[in-house]
Amino acid sequence: MMIMVMVMVMVMVVVVVVVAVVAAAAAAMAMAMAMAMAMAMAMMMMMMILMMMMMMMMMIKLLNDNDSRIISICLQSINVAFLGCERFTDVLSSFKLAGTMLGEILSAFEFMDCSSMHLVESKLGLHNPINKWPFYVLIETFGSNSSHDEEKMSLFLEKVISDNTARDGTLATDLTKIKAVWALRERIAEALMFCGTVYKYDLSLPLPKMYELVLHMRERLVDMQVTNVVGYGHLGDGNLHLNITTPDHSDEVLNEIEPYVFEWTAKHHGSISAEHGLGFKKANYIHFSKSPSSVALMKEIKGLLDPKGIMNPYKVLPH
C-alpha cells in the first residue's frame, strides 16, 4: 500500500514538473514570438519613416526647383494680386472690399509704401511689376477650386480698378511670378540692412492710425541724420512695421524715437508689440500696453510657475 502511494506521488510530481516545463517552454516561445513581432513592427515603422523622409526630401527638391506640379497638389489654388494705390485711405478701402468680395479664400493682405519699394529695387535689384505709386498692396487668395477662386479675384480686381480705389495692378497665378511678387514685400527687412543702423518697431494700431505714425515720425526726425523712415505690414491684424535708418548708430536719434513712439502708440489705443512679442528689449516698456494691476498679476503667475526665474529669464516682464 505504501509503495503504491509513493508511486502515485512520484507520478504526480513528474506530471507537475512536465506541465511546468511545458508551460515555461510555451511562455518562452510566446515571448520570443512577441519579441520577434515587436522587432518586425519596429523595423516596418522605421522603413515607413525613412520612406516618408525620402518623399519629403523629394518634395522639397521639387519646390526648390520651382516645380508647379507639387504646388498644385498641395495648394490646389493660389492667386496673388499686386496693386498700386494713391492714398492710404485707398489701401484701407481695398482691404474692406477684399474682406467682402473674397471672404473665405482671402489668406493675406499686405501693404508697403513707396520708400519700401525703392529700397528693394535699389538695394536688392528686385523688379516692380507695375508703375510707381505711393502705396502698394499684396493680396493672396488660397482655396481648393481654381475656377471659383479666379472668378472671385477677377471680380474683385475689376471692382477696385473701376472705382479707382487701385490705380494699377497685376495678377500672378504661376509659382515663379507669385514668388517674385512676395519677394517685394518679404525682403524689405533685408534691403534695410544695407542702410546702416536700423531701428525696428513692431506695433499694432487701429487701421486708420497705422500710417499716420510713419508720417508723424518723418516730421519729427526731419532735421536729424535719418536716411529712411518706412512703413509696411499686415492689415489683417493691424500690424505695422516701422523702420528707421541712420548711417551709423545715433543715441540722439534713438532718444528722439524712444519712448516717444511707444507713448504715441499707447495714446492711440495700440500695442507696443505685435507679432514678435516684447522680448527683453521692450520688457521695461510694457506699461505702455498693460495696466499696473495687469503687470502685477502677470508677475504673481510667473512667480508661482517659475519661482527661481529660470524659464525664459529677463523677458516680457520689467526687471
TrEMBL record:
Its cofactor is FAD. It is an enzyme of class 1 (oxidoreductase). It catalyses: (R)-malate + A = oxaloacetate + AH2. Pfam families: FAD-oxidase_C. InterPro entries: FAD-bd_oxidored_4_C, FAD-linked_Oxase-like_C, FAD-oxidored/transferase_4, Vanillyl_alc_oxidase_C-sub2. Its EC number is 1.1.99.39. Residues 76-316 form the FAD-binding oxidoreductase/transferase type 4 C-terminal domain. Keywords: FAD, Flavoprotein, Membrane, Oxidoreductase, Transmembrane, Transmembrane helix. SUPFAM superfamilies: FAD-linked oxidases, C-terminal domain. Catalyzes the oxidation of D-2-hydroxyglutarate (D-2-HG) to alpha-ketoglutarate. Also catalyzes the oxidation of other D-2-hydroxyacids, such as D-malate (D-MAL) and D-lactate (D-LAC). Exhibits high activities towards D-2-HG and D-MAL but a very weak activity towards D-LAC. This is D-2-hydroxyglutarate dehydrogenase, mitochondrial. The lineage of its organism: Eukaryota, Metazoa, Cnidaria, Anthozoa, Hexacorallia.
